[in-house]
Structure to design on (520 residues):
């Protein structure tokens, strides 16, 4: 048995070139993402001289927004905090006995 | 413990954007009466008072040029029909057209909110829903927008927020509620949030600031599936915008947020599924949940149920509804949710609100389930402790390869 034995279902083709529209006005969701990233530029440890200094109010299309989002995301990765990687357990099964996980404060 | 649960090593969650259950899956009732979708005669009054009936004529794009309102006051209108707040208000689910009418240039345009997809027009989602398990009762966590709803998937709470604000930095620190990723890491487990690429980035900006070690991109997910190095828990975000790839090729938004092309998202769901499906060891040890963050202002006929208060309160100034201080004691509108594993029997329908043995799920069910499985704990926020978990749907019988579908064209996309 292998994937070649699997019953197949076709996805529907569509005209991607026609659908592609980086000039589409940004939605409130992407506007929110821009605002969050703008705050993040200042909340994070990105040096002032490396901040984009882009006025996000001048960004109106998905294409424009994605360029800004890319720049700030890259900066956040460069200067963001990182925790130590988790010790990988042998399997994903439940640990025996009491977990070492810190309990979660009640809301 | 079932054989499927015993073999389970990976939980993957794909969270899409802004579509209601009835809009995406409501048409499946005609194929399987157990699925609590649409009978075809449901309606909402329009601005002229004329009934607007549901119709299977949703298009992939172009019908929802104005992003339907899904902020707290708008959803309040959708659920209560515009009735002013008063204790004990009746949920009518008849304010969707009225709400969209306030955004539409004419009454006819407001009717689009009642359209739903014919099942054959979104073959990946509807195939997975019928081949594996579909939830009749998975609700968004808050009758509100994206960010606060997604927070319930990551934290099990929105820290009292019902809006889109970047609120989690100070509130999370203050309340000391870690993300599910942090909890897993503390327990020695691996977890990763895969956003699509840097131009799309993540909706979890605060985590990118506070701890970026949990992040990857979708090409990492594809590679990790192929190599068998998928973390214990993965959360996948779709592409949120149309933008060029580094090589100049076109990348379409795959989140299905109106008015992004719905087929691009359907094909993306297929690709996520195929990445897991094509690796035999991974396929047998992974469960995939496909779920939407909230309904996006689109019609659903099931009234959101009451729920356990979450301990926070959103004041009237935050809800935007005169007189209403929200105590997080009601869920948001129902969303599509599909659970995939070769240990799930074909055609499983998880009963929901008002049905025999009905179960109510919400986004807090995600961290609750992940915690329970990997950490062996039922702890978490108040909402997590009261949330249904879903791994009991995995049974003892491993369905053979020739019984589990594959989407060959999705892998090429």
């Amino acid at each position: 048995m292998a994937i070649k034995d699997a019953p197949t279902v076709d996805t529907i083709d569509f005209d991607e070139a026609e659908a592609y529209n980086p000039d589409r006005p940004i939605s409130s969701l992407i506007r929110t993402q821009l605002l969050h990233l703008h705050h993040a530029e200042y909340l994070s440890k990105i040096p002032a001289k490396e901040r984009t200094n882009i006025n996000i109010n001048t960004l109106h299309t998905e294409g424009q927004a994605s360029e800004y989002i890319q720049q700030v995301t890259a900066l956040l990765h460069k200067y963001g905090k990182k925790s130590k990687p988790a010790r990988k357990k042998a399997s994903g099964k439940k640990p025996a006995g009491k977990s070492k996980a810190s309990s979660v404060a009640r809301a | 413990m079932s054989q499927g649960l015993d073999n389970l090593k990976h939980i993957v969650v794909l969270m899409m954007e802004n579509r209601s259950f009835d809009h995406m899956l409501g048409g499946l009732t005609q194929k399987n009466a157990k699925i609590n979708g649409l009978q075809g005669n449901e309606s909402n009054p329009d601005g002229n008072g004329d009934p607007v009936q549901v119709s299977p004529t949703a298009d992939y794009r172009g019908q929802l040029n104005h992003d339907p309102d899904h902020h707290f006051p708008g959803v309040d209108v959708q659920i209560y029909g515009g009735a002013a707040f008063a204790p004990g208000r009746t949920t009518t689910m008849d304010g969707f057209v009225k709400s969209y009418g306030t955004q539409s240039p004419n009454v006819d345009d407001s009717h689009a909110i009642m359209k739903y997809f014919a099942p054959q027009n979104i073959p990946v989602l509807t195939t997975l829903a019928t081949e594996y398990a579909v939830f009749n009762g998975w609700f968004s966590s808050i009758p509100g927008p994206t960010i606060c709803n997604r927070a319930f998937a990551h934290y099990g709470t929105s820290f009292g927020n019902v809006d889109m604000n970047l609120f989690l930095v100070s509130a999370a620190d203050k309340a000391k509620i870690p993300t599910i990723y942090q909890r897993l890491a503390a327990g020695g487990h691996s977890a990763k949030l895969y956003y699509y690429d840097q131009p799309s980035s993540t909706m979890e900006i605060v985590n990118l600031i506070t701890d970026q070690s949990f992040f990857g991109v979708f090409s990492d997910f594809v590679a990790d599936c192929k190599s068998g190095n998928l973390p214990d828990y993965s959360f996948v975000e779709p592409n949120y915008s149309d933008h060029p790839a580094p090589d100049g090729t076109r990348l379409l938004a795959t989140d299905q947020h109106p008015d992004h092309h719905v087929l691009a998202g359907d094909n993306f769901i297929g690709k996520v599924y195929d990445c897991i499906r094509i690796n035999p060891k991974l396929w047998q040890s992974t469960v995939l949940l496909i779920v939407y963050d909230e309904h996006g202002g689109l019609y659903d006929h099931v009234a959101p149920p009451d729920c356990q208060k979450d301990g926070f309160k959103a004041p009237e100034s935050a809800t935007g509804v005169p007189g209403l201080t929200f105590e997080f004691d009601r869920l948001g509108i129902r969303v599509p949710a599909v659970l995939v594993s070769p240990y799930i029997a074909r055609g499983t329908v998880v009963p929901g609100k008002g049905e025999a043995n009905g179960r109510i799920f919400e986004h807090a069910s995600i961290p609750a389930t992940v915690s329970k499985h990997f950490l062996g704990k039922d702890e978490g926020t108040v909402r997590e402790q009261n949330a249904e978990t879903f791994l009991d749907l995995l049974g003892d019988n491993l369905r053979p390869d020739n019984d589990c579908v594959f989407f060959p064209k999705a892998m090429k996309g």
The domain at 3-34+119-412 of chain B is CATH 3.40.720.10 (Alkaline Phosphatase, subunit A).
